[in-house]
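step: validate -> pass
step: tokenize input -> pass
step: predict -> running
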Amino acid sequence: MQQRLDPRLYQIGALTLLLLYGLTALDFDTTFIRAAAVIGMAIGAQALCSRIWGIRFDPRSAAISGLSLALLLRSNSFALLLAGAIAAVASKFVIRWRGKHIFNPTNFAIVALMLATPHVWVSPGQWGNVAFFGFLITCLGGLVVNRAARSDVTYAFIVAWSAILIGRSLWLGEPLTIPMHRLENGALLLFTFFMISDPKTTPDSRAGRILFAAIVALGAGYIQFKLFRTNGILWSLFASSLLVPLIDVLLLSERYVWNGGSPWSALPQLRSLLSPAWLPHIRFAASTSPRETRKSTTAPHKSPSSAMPIAP
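step: predict -> pass
step: emit ->
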């Protein structure tokens, strides 16, 4: 069977084209030098962390984080932009739970900097109709090309978020042009297709991912319309990511790996940690497939440490 294209390569291509278009045809509030420096710093931080943690260097995820930061994060301080690139990559190695990093790197870097200093902000992403719809088709094409990456969480979030925006406008008697305008936002596309859909930081099970998407959408609605804070989806994703370990415990499934990796399932490790007397009293809403169960029962026993690679 022919191996599918790594989803990250498609993402890198889409983000690169968007960044180049924004720098040349649109009035993006950044420069080629700043964008290149942020991307280069992210890749350099990945190389350094890979050396420190003793794993194989792979620049693809770091390039995606760097491109996303170049598109979204703005500051008058060049040092803060570089710090964002370092924080994004370092978070994958430092903030982990059972071999899985918790936060989407780009989301973590943006929120951490907004918490730390008032001198950073997020680009509003007003790209115009041509850029927006072109990028939308590119993102949708990525879901088709790479099929099983994490399209379920993308669809679940955009449906939930659209329902919140449209439902609120209907409740208040606003014209539907208002929620439609809010949905025509380039930053929202980046969030939906490149942040919340990150396979390494979303729940392992499909039911968990759909639940996670709904929680993020509801949290974003509360932050934006009750707390009256901007960037509600970014704040909500940051806070909701803390629930992913709990969702993974309750809804067990095989862990996602990029092309060429080997899957990791939480089920054998959790069984080894839980007392056998407790197991009959625990009900899991989702279980691994029969194929995974056979693998876990026939495979030789491995210690938890050997089953949890550090590689992001």
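step: describe -> The chain has three domains: 7-122, 128-248, 253-298.
step: cleanup -> pass
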